[in-house]
Structure formats: C-alpha cells, structure tokens
C-alpha cells in the first residue's frame, strides 16, 4: 500500500547551524494515529513543519500523499494544530475556525454551519462570537483544534495540542479526537506529546526520538484494538506500555 | 458628595488651579512691571484681541483646519496605499523604500518654496506641504506593520493556501492596524504644522488666509496680542485634532489590541 507520509534520511540544519533533525526515516500508512515523544528541542515540531511543506529539509526526501508536501498542501490534504493556538486576535472565534473554508472561498453559509459544528465538537458552541482574548489558554487551543478539523484533512498534524489543558478536558478531548479519527477511516493523525500516558492511550504506534539532533530511535507498536476506554487506561497492559515508553526516553 | 463628581474634581482640580494661578501671575507681573504690550501682552489683552477679531480668527482657524484635514487624508491614503504596494513585492520594496527614507529626511521647509513654484501660492501648495510632512510616517509605520505579522499566523495562511491578496487583506492589514494608528497619531500632529508652515510660504489659502498667514501678517505689524491669540488657537487646533484621531483609534482597536486596552476585564 502507498504510504501517506514517507521520510527518507531527512535532515534539517537551520541557517544558524542548529542541527534539529538527523537522518529521520519513517513510513506512515493511511489511517494510522502515531505519536511522537521525545525531549524538548529534539526536532518534533521541525519534522511536522517539514511534513506540511512549511520548511524544507536540508537533506533527504519527504513524500506526502504520494507527492511533495507543497503539492499535498495545495490539494487541501493537510491540517496543522500548532503548538501555540495561533488565532487572529481581531476575529471572532467563529471566524477563526472558519478560516480554512474562507480561504477556499466556500459560501458564507457553509462556513458558518461548519464552524458551528466544529465548535460543538470541542465544546465551545457558546463562544462563537467571543474574541480570542476572552478565552482561557485551553479554550484557545480547542478553537485551534476546531479550525484544523473544519478543513477536513487527510493528514492531521497535531503539535502538543493538549499540553495546556487540565486533566479532565484533556481526557474529554482525547476521546473526542479518537471518535473523530475512527469516524474518518481515511484520516491519518500525527501527534506530538510529552505525556507517555497520552501517547499510549491514543496511538497505534509511538515513535521515540533522541535528543537533538533528533532521530527516531525506537518504535513501539501499541497493538490494542479501539475503542479502548477506561478499561485499557486502568489495566495492567497500559502500565507496561507506559513503562516501555519511559524507558526508551531515558536511552 | 457624589463620588463621580469628586473623582472628576480631584482629576481636573489641580491642573485647573495651576492654570488660574499661572494666568493670574502673568497678568499681575506684566501689569506691575508695565511691560509694553508689543513685547509681552497681558492675558486680558490677548482675550480682547481675540474678541475684537473674532470673525477673522475663526475664519483663519477654519481655513487651516480644512487644509490640515485635506493634507492628513491625502497622507493617510497615500501612505497606506503606498505601503501596501511596497509590501506586496519584495523587489519593489527594496528598490523604492530607500528613497522614501531619504524623502523623510528632507527638511520640508527647505523644499516648500519649490512646491509653491510648482503649484502656485494658495491652498494647493499648502495642502501639498501638509501632505508631504504627514506622508512619510504613515508610509514607514504601515510598512513596518505589514512586515511584522506573526510568523505562526503566516504559516497558517500558507498552510491553507491563502493567495497573496487574501494574506494581505485578512492577515497583514489587520495585523498592521496598531502600527497604522501609531502613524495616524504622528502624522496628524505633523499635518497641523505642515499646514501652518505652508501658509507661511504660500500665503492665502482658500477664501481667507489661515492661521499661519494671520501669524506672519500680525508679526509684521507687531500686533503682538493677536499674534498670541493666533498661536493659542493653533495649539488648540493641534491638540483637538490629535485627540479626535486618538479617540477614533481607541474605537477601532479597543476590542482586541493591547496598546488600546486599559485593563478592562469584560
Ligand atoms: N527557526 C529556527 N531557527 C533556528 N533554530 C531553530 C528554529 N526552530 C527550531 N530551532 C531549533 O531546532 C531544535 C528543534 O526545535 P523543535 O521546535 O523542532 O523542537 P521540539 O522537539 O518541537 O521541542 P518542544 O518539545 O520543546 O516543542 C531546537 O534546538 C531549536 O532551538
Ligand atoms: Mg515543538
């Protein structure tokens, strides 16, 4: 089967000489949900930016949806939840969420309906008219997630989307993400997290990265069927996977 | 006492008292020292001069005001459009912007006579001079604003395939608004100066001479009290104009931008 995303010996050295990523190799199949874990500064965001065609690798080759990242982006195939919420402070929550559709020049009515729907998914339907500065950090992040979902992408890149959230909201959104992902069998999700529990609970595969310059040092398959639910979260298997992730992070 | 009123009193009271004391002292010192009026008029002389020439004075103020507004509007439109043009192409910006900087450093008083030769004495030259003075800060401020959009937001627009025009209209211009407003505040004060300087060199504008013209005229005839009255009106005009622009900016930006947010928590 054609991989959705392929990295071949991808390296990135920033103009100031920082080697962020070194010879990363990776193949992602359609419909996977993959987590990246690794120490801060190991190049996770850099890999995501390169996969979205926002930054070019200095060596190696990236293939997305069978073509270049730029082409994949142009076919509206990629959505990105940045590490920061990245909202337009002058636009309402609804307009922020509707942005991808607005830029595609979808009819105003479609924009509004889809934005309402996406906001409902992240539990912010009552805040459609609010401005970003009137929201808490966690709420802003949820707006950003709604905006990524509205684009209806084939690849969803999520860079530590739940980092700023409290435990309850985090779990709710984890469930939400899983159910959205399961309802869209063609959608591939790449996810960055510092949280081993989150990685194990969400993903079918976990990629552990070494400190800078980042390479993918270990791959852990979480071969547990979905839906996973609380029974998995509290079972013995869960602890074993978390232990495996933590141990790999230490090496 | 009503708290709102006492609050107002405590804010306005001190400067008001200082003002009354200052004017009183001025009146007393000039009267006691018997200084000649042409050297330093008493406040009462100034008020009398203003009252005697009231229609003239108002006419001058309105002439200068119209010139200022015209010059200001032109410099805002020209500055913002010019900056958008420069910002939409790196090559154009790199080739033209250095000259805009040079333009900014030319002392406008030095070129004012040339402008009068080109446009003739009168309102056209005066408005042109006001425009030239106000244009440069508008241009450079807007340009800085257009080029200082958040990098992540830029990435976002790239990611969702925004066209150049969409990025300009939906991202760069809104993000530049605080800078544009900063430019408005600088250039509105400069345009008042520009109009008055313009009247010094280009004389009568419109139907009746403006404040600058009245000032040169009164100075030649050593009508010092009227000179003071004109200077006072020019200051008031400048302050009022600045306050209006300031108020408008607060209205536009108040809802989202920090620079105009005064710790409101709604
Ligand atoms: N634009 C840039 N210019 C120079 N160096 C950069 C740039 N962006 C990132 N880096 C460097 O590259 C390395 C990897 O950065 P990256 O943001 O990919 O890390 P990360 O794994 O996402 O870290 P975190 O978990 O803290 O978000 C870091 O050392 C960082 O300092
Ligand atoms: Mg990061």
From TrEMBL, chain A:
ABC transporter domain ranges (all copies): 5-236
Superkingdom field: Bacteria
Keyword ATP-binding: yes
Keyword Ribosomal protein found: no
MF terms (GO), sorted A to Z: ATP binding; ATP hydrolysis activity
Spans through the membrane: none
Keyword annotations from UniProtKB, A to Z: ATP-binding, Nucleotide-binding, Transport
Name of the protein this chain belongs to: ABC transporter ATP-binding protein
Origin species: Cohnella xylanilytica
From TrEMBL, chain B:
One annotated Gene Ontology cellular component of this protein: plasma membrane
Places the protein is found: Cell membrane
UniProt keywords, alphabetically: Cell membrane, Membrane, Transmembrane, Transmembrane helix, Transport
Transmembrane feature ranges: 12-33, 65-87, 99-120, 126-146, 176-197, 226-245
InterPro entries according to UniProt: MetI-like, MetI-like_sf
Lineage: Bacteria, Bacillati, Bacillota, Bacilli, Bacillales
Chief subcellular location: membrane
A Pfam family of this chain: BPD_transp_1
CDD domains referenced in this protein's UniProt entry, alphabetically: TM_PBP2
Family: Belongs to the binding-protein-dependent transport system permease family.
Protein's UniProt name: ABC transporter permease
Entry keyword Transport: yes
Ranges where the ABC transmembrane type-1 domain occurs: 61-245
PROSITE patterns hit by this protein: ABC_TM1
Gene Ontology biological process terms from the UniProt entry: transmembrane transport
Topology versus the membrane: Multi-pass membrane protein
